[in-house]
Specification:
Layout lengths: L6 H4 L5 H10 L4 E5 L6 H5 L5 E4 L3 H9 L1 H6 L5 E4 L7 H11 L6 E5 L3 H4 L9 E5 L5 H4 L8 H7 L15 H10 L3 H6 L2 H22 L6 H13 L3 E2 L2 H8 L3 H13 L3 E4 L15 E4 L2 H7 L4 H4 L3 H22 L5 E6 L6 E7 L6 E7 L10 H10 L3 E8 L5 E4 L2 E5 L6
Parallel strand pairs: 1-4, 1-5, 2-3, 3-4, 11-12, 12-14
Antiparallel strand pairs: 6-8, 7-8, 9-10, 10-11, 13-14
């Protein structure tokens, strides 16, 4: 960790990524941290370096553009290269430096775009380890680290691992309050309600005006803004890009390009369909989510008064919020879990999330319900999945907005959403 710390760093809230980052830095010469803009990558990375080079600042970037090898050689290590995608040439310099000196923990690179699109080539393959940093989870916001992650507990402990936090009884309004806030560190740690609204709206505006050029993409600002809104309205749904295009009044080709752009900016999450040889007639379409529930609320202009009059939007926001928690855990889990969804082609059977732990370990089905009184009917698709795949079905969990842990059927439980950060 850097010897000097800013006021912000002294008040640092531990992240799940910290433990993984420390382990990587102890073994590898360079790590690249990617994630949505403002998800906390730089704040975390600064704690582990002696110097920061801000490549989004023209004066510093110009030195690296002129001679990246000389610029690297003249700076102390460990070195953080912030917003590296502004000067993609730095990747080649990192490769050459690491080839000469493989001292662990020499470089951290942070960026707000997926590397495979930001660089024409990827010369650092095999030399730079990638690490994704997503917006904060409730576990992190509430300071409940370290602790066993939900995705690890649910595959090993079953009932005992799903007890909600003691004394933390939450209802629908509590979950909606957390979901409206989302997980961007500035929003949840530093701002009041008015500040959060302004910040999130500014984030949306910057997506359209500034973020697309990071990937050297030209977009129609009005069409892209309409597509972002259409995507938000479809968050937590199985939707095709062409359908979003019709909603945004743009052609299918442009819609596919805009969906890929949002994905590469790490604002959109596309959950693939789960496949099994025991199931037929399963939809292959991906399920779409915004990566932050607060951003979803901002795009759709949702506040508590709006939510209390729109049950569909409540369900959409709660599911986006829950997937935000589980996605971040899956990135850091030692269980090597893959997130999938399941829906048959007729749409009559649907499991919101499938946690696939690989052969020999089985799957966990997750249904997400905005209800405080879950019952067996809420688990009917989980029961269908259990019967279809037999021994591969490890557990089914209905995550709900109530406060009780309930056994609904064999291998199927209803647990409060708060069990995610127990």
């Amino acid at each position: 960790m850097s010897k000097s710390a800013t006021k912000e760093e002294r008040g640092y809230r531990e992240r799940m990524v910290d433990a993984r980052l420390q382990a990587i830095l102890a073994r590898f010469p360079a790590v690249m941290m990617t994630g949505p803009r403002a998800s906390g990558k730089t704040t975390t990375a600064r704690r582990y370096v002696a110097h920061v080079a801000h490549l989004d600042r023209p004066a510093e970037a110009s030195v690296f553009k002129h001679d990246p090898d000389m610029a690297l050689a003249g700076l102390p290590k460990p070195l953080l290269l912030d917003e590296w995608q502004e000067v993609p040439e730095v990747l080649g310099a990192i490769k050459r430096s690491v080839d000469l000196d493989r001292t662990p923990g020499s470089f951290i690179l942070t960026g707000s775009v997926r590397v495979d699109d930001a660089a024409q080539t990827w010369p650092a393959t095999g030399r730079v380890v990638r690490l994704v940093t997503l917006p904060m989870t409730q576990r992190e916001i509430l300071g409940r680290l370290p602790g066993r992650l939900f995705v690890d507990r649910v595959i090993t402990e079953q009932v005992g691992g799903l007890e909600p936090p003691p004394g933390a009884r939450m209802g629908l309004k509590d979950y909606l309050t957390a979901a409206l806030m989302g997980g961007f560190p500035d929003v949840v740690l530093n701002l009041d309600a008015f500040g959060r609204e302004v910040w999130l709206q500014g984030y949306i505006d910057q997506l359209v005006s500034d973020d697309a050029p990071l990937l050297r993409r030209r977009v129609d600002p009005f069409g892209f803004a309409a597509f972002v809104e259409a995507f938000a309205v479809a968050s937590a749904a199985v939707t095709l890009a062409s359908t979003l295009g019709r909603a945004a009044v743009i052609d299918p080709r442009t819609a596919r390009a805009y969906l890929e752009l949002l994905t590469r900016l790490l604002v959109a999450d596309q959950v693939p369909a789960w496949r099994s040889n025991r199931l037929s007639e399963v939809s292959a379409a991906k399920k779409l989510y915004l990566t932050d529930s607060g951003l979803l609320a901002a795009v759709t202009n949702a506040d508590m008064s709006v939510l209390l009059q729109d049950g569909r939007l409540v369900g959409q926001l709660v599911e986006t919020f829950v997937v935000q928690q589980i996605r971040a855990e899956a990135q850091m889990s030692s269980s090597r879990v893959n997130l999938r969804h399941l829906r048959n082609r007729g749409g009559h059977r649907e499991v919101d999330l499938i946690l696939d732990y690989g052969k020999g370990r089985g799957v966990v089905g997750v249904a997400i319900k905005a209800t405080s009184a879950p019952h067996r009917d809420d688990a009917k698709h989980l029961m269908w999945l259990r019967e279809k795949i037999g021994s591969a079905f490890h557990l089914g969990v209905v995550l709900h907005t109530g406060s009780e842990l309930i056994e609904l059927d064999q291998k199927i439980l209803a647990a409060p959403i708060s069990t995610l950060w127990a």
